[in-house]
Amino acid sequence: MGWVESLQRAIDYMEEHLLDHITIESIAEQANASVFHFQRTFAILTDISVGEYLRRRRLTIVAQELSDTNIKIIDLAYKYGYDTPEAFSKAFRKQHGVTPSEARNNMGKLKSYNRLVIQVSLKGAEPMKYRIVERESFEVVGVKREFSLVNDENLKDIPEFWNDVNLDGTSDLLFKLNKGDIKGVLGVCIDNRDTQSKQTMDYWVATEYEGELPEGLLKLEVPASKWGVFEVHGPMPGAMQKAWKQIFSEWFPSNHYEHASTLELEVYSDEDPFSPNLYSEIWIPLK
Predict the structure, then answer these.
(1) Rg (CA), the chain
(2) Residues 30-39: pLDDT tens digits?
(3) What are the residue ranges of helices labelled H in 105-190?
């Protein structure tokens, strides 16, 4: 089964169990992927998190039930997984702009989020510049934090991590220490699927380095791999997000390579992050 079909199978599973308490592990299992890689691929292709998709779909369907049935609002709240009518009303108003009572009385407009169907674009209108690189293992030094994958907390907390290392001078130090083939500071994503902490990921801000470990930093060995190295041109964060989406929606479906499911690298320079001429890279392990 191809990765597009696997992703659609996971979406179909979510739709079939919208009224159930399903876990991100069971969803990722449908796609034969780890929690980390499923969440990441889903967010790249859809621009929303798994949790947000489920919330939007549930509140879309409950709005239809409010219009078409006489079920009590409190019963609908419990049916769709809300602990209190107040929590349900708050979530409903956030999505639709009206309260459940107003929706039942046909006051205001409702917002509908339809079931997702993954359609991969193979247009290739915009050329992608990349190279294939084979490297032996190498070392990077830097700082790391462990992030929870529960409720997509990693997606919210990693930007705060970057903000911290930029403010405390760590990123400046890493640029000075940079020594190796990869020029710049790296964002390194590591899936913890093979550890006891399957619901977490490690994220490093690091740089390639050879020599004695500098005080206050940690060392990570990046395994030998074949890498797809993709050029990214333009200001952050838009250019990086656009490149990730193009890789997954166009490049992978039209090439014989598969993601090797090991760590990924984003390479950042010390140039102005908002420059239209900024150059960055994405390194993806391939098999």
Answers:
(1) 22
(2) 988 888 888 8
(3) 153-167, 170-177
| pTM to 2 decimal places | 0.80
Among residues 43, 283, 48, 286, the alpha carbon closest in space to that of 187 is found at 283
- Is there a single domain that holds both residue 22 and residue 157? no
Bridge partners of residue 27, in order along the sequence:
none
Q: In what order do the strands lie in the sheet with 225-233?
A: 130-135, 225-233, 279-286, 264-268, 185-191, 200-208, 138-148, 218-222
Total tally of structural domains belonging to the chain: 2
CATH number of the CATH domain containing 80: 1.10.10.60
Distance CA 135, CA 154 (A): 29
Contacts of 37-41 spanning 24+ positions with Cβ under 8 A:
37/191, 37/259, 37/261, 38/7, 38/10, 39/149, 39/152, 39/154, 39/155, 40/189, 41/3, 41/7, 41/248
**Structure confidence by residue, pLDDT tens digits, 145-157:** 998 877 777 777 8
Greatest CA separation found in the chain? 71
Among 2-16, 50-64, 204-218, name the one with the lowest average pLDDT. Answer: 2-16
